[in-house]
Amino acid sequence: MNGLSSTNICSPSDLSQSLQTMDTPCLLVDEARMDNNIHRLRDRLQKAGVAFRPHFKTAKSWDVFRRMMTGPHGPATVSTLREAEELIRHGVTDITYAVGISPDKLPRVQRLRKDGITLAVLLDSVEQAVAVVSASDPSDPIPVLIELDCDGHRSGVKPQDAPLLLAIAKALTPTARLMGVLTHAGESYEARGQAALEAAAEQERMAAVTAAETLRAAGHPCPVVSVGSTPTAFTAQSYEGVTEVRAGVFVFFDLVQAGIGICTPDDIALSVLSTVIGHQREKGWTIIDAGWTALSSDRGTAGQAVDQGYGLVCDVAGRPLADLVVTIVNQEHGIVAARPGCPRLDCELPIGTRLRILPNHACATATQHDRYHVIGVGKNTVRQVWERCRGW
Question: Which InterPro entries match (predicted)?
Answer without folding.
Answer: Ala_racemase_N, D-amino_acid_metab_enzyme, D-ser_dehydrat-like_dom, D-ser_dehydrat-like_sf, PLP-binding_barrel
